[in-house]
Amino acid sequence: MKNIPNMLIALSLCLVLVGCGRPAPPSAQEQLCDDLVELQGALQPLTNVTPGTSIRDVQRDTARLENAWRSLTLAGRELRGIRINEWRALYNQLLRRIQRLPANAPLGEEAANILEDARDLNRLAEESYQQLNCR
C-alpha cells in the first residue's frame, strides 16, 4: 500500500513525459512558409502558359491555386508585416482574368496577362519567403 502513491507519481510523470514527446504543431510563421511553398507550386503551371494552352488546363490549375490561397491567408492573418492586401489584389486580378475566359478555347492573347499576373504573385511569394527567413 505504501508503494501506491509512489506508483501514481511515477505513472503521472510518465504520462507527462509521453505528452511532452509529441511534436509541437507548426508555428504561424512555419505554417506560412509551408503555405508559400504550396502557393509557388500551384503557380508553377500558370507561369508557363502559352497562347496555345487550353482554358480547361488553366481552370484546373486554378483550383489548386485557390486551395493554396485559402491556406496562405489563414496562416497570414496571424503574422504582422505580411502584405496581405497586396497579395489579395494580385490574386483577385489573376482569378478574375481566368474566370472571364471562355470555355474550350486556347488562351490566345490573354496568355500574356495571365503569365504576368502569375509571375507577379510568384515574385511576391519569393519576397515574403525571404522576408520570413523560411528554410
3D architecture notes:
- With 135 residues, this protein is an all-alpha fold.
- The chain has one domain (27-131).
- The chain has 5 helices and no strands.
- It has helices at 3-20, 28-43, 55-76, 84-99, 110-131.
- It is elongated and about 45 Å long.
Spatial gap, N to C terminus? 54 Å
Radius of gyration: 23 Å
Mean pLDDT: 78
Largest sheet: none
The low-confidence parts are 4-24
What structural category characterises the helix and strand content?
mainly alpha
- Give me the count of strands: 0
Portion of residues within helices: 55-70%
How many helices in DSSP terms? Answer: 5
Element pattern in H and E: HHHHH
> What share of the residues does DSSP label as strand, in percent?
under 5%
Indicate how many domains the architecture comprises: 1
**Shape summary:** elongated
